[in-house]
Amino acid sequence: MSDARYVGVMTETQSYVEYLWSQSSWDVPLFHAHHVLNLLQRLLFATLSMVANAGILHFHWTTPPHPKFTVLRKSRIIIRTHLISGTINVCLPIVAFCSANPKVSTPIMWITVGFDVIHLMTVIAQTPNVNGQRLLTVPAYQFIALVKVVSVAGLIHALLDDSLYELERLEWLWTVWANHQTYAWVRVWMVLLYFCQAARESRYTLAVLIAGTIGAGQAYGFSIMIFLIVWLIGFNLWLRRKTYTLAARFAESKHTGDEQRELNLEMSAMLQYFHEAHHGLYHDVRYKHQPEVVQKILFETGYLKVVQDARGKDTSQLAPLRTIPDDVQARCVFESVDFDNSGSLDLLELAQIFITNGVSTETTQKMCEEAFGKFDINNDGLIDLNEFTMAFKPYWAYQFAEVYVILGDAPQLMKNVINVPLHSTAMGCPFGAAHSIPLDFGSEVISWTDLVQSKNGKSLDRALSRVRSKLKPAVR
């Protein structure tokens, strides 16, 4: 409802920014302490956010998106829509805040509402495929989307209520814009953690959590952080229940080959929730030995040489990235993900590439269906090197560039691998179909040993009971 305090305070010649500044008395700090502090916080928040956004928008408009957003046509449309709507919502509200003319600010608010709804839809669509430790990043992005819904609904109500003053509408616009800055603050904290060389394995996860409290907190205050904590706890209780149910499905009955492969895929995706998902495969601990495979191929093809440095020590010298042919790049990535050295990728090996990058089970299945449907030329149910090269150029080009940086940053660390044979099949793929339960060897967060410990016995028993109750009607 309208408040008499607003009558005549924000004149027709004042913008939102001018009003906030004029109401801050620097001569009577005790009386206006809260207002001055609020103004300073908003100025600092807005300034840093806009500086961060300048770099972020330049990066996203000049750099191709991660390949997991470009393999499927639907994903390409969503990521482009996300970028366009996000850019508009970053820039347009600034104009409204600085305009003293309601005939300018009000239409801008309606435009912002429209594009924020579009942006919200793209956020919801992409949330299952986020990076980081997804038992935290997925609910964090869900919560950010929920706050966005509340903010947009409040702004729409304010715009439709003729009894409200322009100031009150602009306050709702501020909540929308402030929450939208979460994406900027994720990058700010990523850069800071990288500069400090801190939290190497969980930078993105920490950045998302901190940025979520900054953006939503600036919009609604401290109480919103409590709701975020409650949301995280609720999501993890749901995820734990789902995990136990999946484990019970393994233990309850025998499965056909197709059913077992489906369960293995689901289990790999479930385990990924407890593991940090990176943009590059080779940053994942489960692929930590695979740069050695790439290094060996580059050495054999002459794009990596052993030279002596100024101290007379052997070190590796890489050819410039632009000089390495596409077929060599594709082969490097293909052989480093072909854990059993069979010369082809089965469903699990291919799916694990996407799952490790934080792609959801549903999207992974669609990407694999497209790969096998369009590019499995001989219809043998396997993807060989040539088929992989044709089907997944965005993926192997991106991943090769990532491992190229790793090899360039550590010229001496892995030089001895040139004389080391490739991994034997016995080492194997930790996600191979031979495992009744695909083990996550690299994860220190959760293991199947932990799941069957006595402290989890009751949870597993309840899960088994639920599975049995669902199986019995099907058997009848």
Automatic annotation (TrEMBL):
<dbReference type="InterPro" id="IPR002048">
    <property type="entry name" value="EF_hand_dom"/>
</dbReference>
<dbReference type="GO" id="GO:0005509">
    <property type="term" value="F:calcium ion binding"/>
</dbReference>
<feature type="transmembrane region" description="Helical">
    <location>
        <begin position="108"/>
        <end position="128"/>
    </location>
</feature>
<dbReference type="Pfam" id="PF13499">
    <property type="entry name" value="EF-hand_7"/>
</dbReference>
<feature type="domain" description="EF-hand">
    <location>
        <begin position="325"/>
        <end position="360"/>
    </location>
</feature>
<dbReference type="InterPro" id="IPR018247">
    <property type="entry name" value="EF_Hand_1_Ca_BS"/>
</dbReference>
<keyword id="KW-0812">Transmembrane</keyword>
<feature type="transmembrane region" description="Helical">
    <location>
        <begin position="172"/>
        <end position="194"/>
    </location>
</feature>
<feature type="transmembrane region" description="Helical">
    <location>
        <begin position="206"/>
        <end position="239"/>
    </location>
</feature>
<keyword id="KW-0106">Calcium</keyword>
<feature type="domain" description="EF-hand">
    <location>
        <begin position="363"/>
        <end position="398"/>
    </location>
</feature>
<keyword id="KW-1133">Transmembrane helix</keyword>
<feature type="transmembrane region" description="Helical">
    <location>
        <begin position="140"/>
        <end position="160"/>
    </location>
</feature>
<keyword id="KW-0472">Membrane</keyword>
<protein>
    <recommendedName>
        <fullName>EF-hand domain-containing protein</fullName>
    </recommendedName>
</protein>
<feature type="transmembrane region" description="Helical">
    <location>
        <begin position="39"/>
        <end position="61"/>
    </location>
</feature>
<feature type="transmembrane region" description="Helical">
    <location>
        <begin position="82"/>
        <end position="102"/>
    </location>
</feature>
<dbReference type="InterPro" id="IPR011992">
    <property type="entry name" value="EF-hand-dom_pair"/>
</dbReference>
